[in-house]
Amino acid sequence: MVNLGYSSVEALRGLLPSLDPKDMDLGEFREFYRYAYHFTRDRTSATLEKDIACALLPLVMGNRSPHTHTFVQFLEARTSNDNMTFDQWNSFLEFTRAIGQDLSEYSDEGAWPILLDEYVAWYKDRP
């Protein structure tokens, strides 16, 4: 505890709320989100396995985006490209901030990774 710069349990307890992702501001959350990717992936791989990404996204995102659940469904339904790149991981976070639940802000001309373009097509085609 002292190594962390806290001299009492009460002082340390005051830190705990700031460690909860739902209480982080956007900059802090973005750092946490990126860290989660690097911490979780296999150190011998530059990408995150699909099943790990599908388990990790809801844990990290919480209720920050209405797209998390459907994006995970989309990933689980895919039969190709089982790994998620760091660019795709980061772009999903930016996508959730820029594109509303109804996808009305989405443009085919946008510079999103193909994975997100495919997600939008899948989302619009589902029953």
Q: What labels would you give this structure?
A:
127 residues, mainly alpha, two-stranded antiparallel ribbon, 2 strands, 54% helix, globular, DCN1-like_PONY, ubiquitin-like protein binding, PONY_dom
Brief summary:
By secondary structure, the chain is mainly α. The protein has helices spanning 9-15, 26-40, 50-61, 68-77, 86-98, 114-125; strands at residues 48-49, 83-84. The protein has one domain (20-125): Cullin, PONY binding domain (Recoverin, domain 1).
Describe what this molecule looks like in 3D.
One of its GO terms (molecular function) is ubiquitin conjugating enzyme binding. Neddylation of cullins play an essential role in the regulation of SCF-type complexes activity. InterPro entries: DCN-prot, DCN1-like_PONY, PONY_dom. By secondary structure, the chain is mostly helical. It has one domain (about 20-125): Recoverin, domain 1 (Orthogonal Bundle). A two-stranded antiparallel ribbon has the order 1-2. The chain has helices at about 10-15, 25-40, 50-60, 70-75, 85-100, 115-125; strands spanning about 50, 85.
